[in-house]
Design brief:
The structure holds 2 protein chains of 2 kinds.
Chain A lengths: L6 E10 L3 E11 L4 E5 L6 H9 L9 E4 L2 E2 L10 E4 L11 H11 L4 H14 L15 H14 L4 E5 L7 H18 L2 E6 L2 H7 L2 E6 L2 E6 L1 H6 L4 H6 L4 E8 L5 E3 L2 E3 L9 E4 L5 E3 L6 E10 L3 E7 L6 E6 L9 E5 L17 H6 L1
Parallel strand pairs in A: 3-8, 3-9, 6-7, 7-8
Antiparallel strand pairs in A: 1-2, 1-4, 4-5, 9-10, 11-12, 11-14, 12-13, 15-19, 16-17, 16-19, 17-18
Helix pairs in contact in A: 2-3, 2-4, 3-4
Chain B lengths: L1 H32 E3 L3 E6 L2 H41 L3 H15 L2 H12 L3 H5 L1 H26 L2 H10 L4 H12 L1 H17 L2 H6 L7 H11 L2 H32 L1
Antiparallel strand pairs in B: 1-2
Helix pairs in contact in B: 1-12, 2-6, 2-9, 2-12, 3-6, 6-9, 7-8, 9-12, 11-12
Classes of the chains: A alpha+beta, B mainly alpha.
InterPro entries (chain A): AAA+_ATPase, ABC_SmlMolc_Importer, ABC_transporter-like_ATP-bd, ABC_transporter-like_CS, Mo/tungstate-bd_C_term_dom, P-loop_NTPase, Transp-assoc_OB_typ2
GO molecular function, one term (chain A): ABC-type transporter activity
Pfam family, one (chain A): TOBE_2
Amino acid sequence: MSSSVSITLHQCSRTFAGDNTALQPLDLQVNAGETLVLLGPSGCGKTTTLRIISGLESPDKGGQVMFGERDVTALPIEQRDVGMVFQNYALFPNMSVADNIAYGLKIQRLPRAEIAHRLDEVMHMVDLQGFGDRRIDALSGGQKQRVALARAIAVRPKVLLFDEPLAALDAKLRDRLRIEIGQLLRELGTTAVYVTHDQDEAMALGDRIAVMQAGRIAQLGTPQEIYHQPANAFVADFIGAVNCLDVISTRADGGLVVNGGELIAAHLQGVSTVYCRPEDIQVVSVDQADVKGKVVQSIFLGQTQRLMVDTGGASPLQIEAPSRQRWPNGTAIGLALPSSVLFHPDKPTAPVNAKEMAND
Amino acid sequence: MKSRLRFTLQLGFTLLVCLFMIVPVVMSVMAGLTENYFVGLESGLTLRWVNEVWQLYADTIWLSIKLALACLLITILIGVPAAYGLLRSRRRWANAIEELLLLPVAVPGLATALALLLAYGSYREFRGSWLFILVGHVLFTLPFMVRAVLSVMQTAKLPQLEEAAASLGASFRQRFFGVVIPNCMSGILAGALMVVTLSIGEFNITWMLHTPLTKTLPVGLADSYASMRLEIGSAYTLIFLVMVVPLLVAIQWAGRLTEQRR
């Protein structure tokens, strides 16, 4: 719809009163037309970063915010050409749905016919035809967020900003709206920054994801990179579940001795911990197993079930297993952990085998 | 059976309390309409006293209305921005200012009036005009406006609404008049109700500040009770009620309208 613009943050830090550093000096580039997701636990600085991009917050001295070639550091939000969607909708309760959506257009003093045209267009895009005259309090949460979305895109902003827009909705609605937002973002091709603490949302929507921790970017990469090559244990744990196996000793032939068995991983020599995802571990017969243990708990999840397997380590291993089979507590179980699924943040990943290629 | 007895007792008690409060009002109104209160109703009903009050005190009534409206205008002009300022600056001194604003309510009106007289009494023109009383009324009623508006502003999530408006390109002025004011209208109306009624009924400060030429309704009422027949004072009360009650109803009604709209 509008020509998209890149966003560059240069050395943006933010310190709040009481010497409370919310954001360490940060460099970040969002490419034109890209959707970047800022992901992290609460208090990691993701919202502060978004607010600095929006202009609602200023970086500490020395920080610089660029939209394309234009330095917008000194501009307040109303002069930055951004569209913003908030967690609690922030719709104007004194106006109807149509008046809410047209608010930004009226501020721009567009001719009446143009406003009506755009109103039609965006209400169609967010599937709200016929809702124009409704009062805001007569809408459901999902409808409210659609209005907020329509209001933000109606002004054809250069940059779209989302501050946990789905956090207040229930799971089912969240999934549906997530898909719709994804489609909308692709359709518009507008540069977007999306803040969330939900990893599913991040992976579904982000062209790239910046995982943040304690005011820093812990890792920046595509969803695949973040998931399969996490930069550190925090990222690995935050994006999906992860098992940590302590390496007890290394054999002469290169085998890594862990609790309950031995792993072959030529690419992980010298590490003290080996990581792997629950869904990458396979249940095999005990005599073929890399690692053996006992089932201590099984959690039924519907499409799969999660087994907790005690291998003698500090915490049990988590394994994703087919949901129809049953493993009563105490069952001896054998696990296969091929080298391709084992990783360590400091080491390159193992050569990708054919099966994984097919998955990608 | 038992619950029915309880209901009857409760109803009886409620009616008694109501009577206790309503009878004096009715007595007062009747006194203003009877020919001779000491003789009683058999002396006949008359509008003579009402008429007489109108002859004597019409200007106090007009002055009271003028004062109340001027006071309302000023408390809106000062109070709404003040509440907004307090909302935006949640720092330590914001609390201090809020408490300072309440001071004229806690301090006896006579003391406030005395302070005004000491400070500005020597400016003859000002001292003799109705504006002097207006200052006292604004001091006394402003906290009610600020409080009412501030509490609505705090529940209306105004900062977020403003951020949304700003993201859509609205300047401060556009946000203030297009988003802030409409969304705290119910607070402004509630505050207006308080300000107008307090201003019309205010006696303490006004009594100290008035001159023979700037008497308000309550001051005139005191004057008439002190120096005239009881019937005249009562007829005066009647006029006061006829004036104030529709005003209260109108403001309540306006308040309910905005409530329904949100």
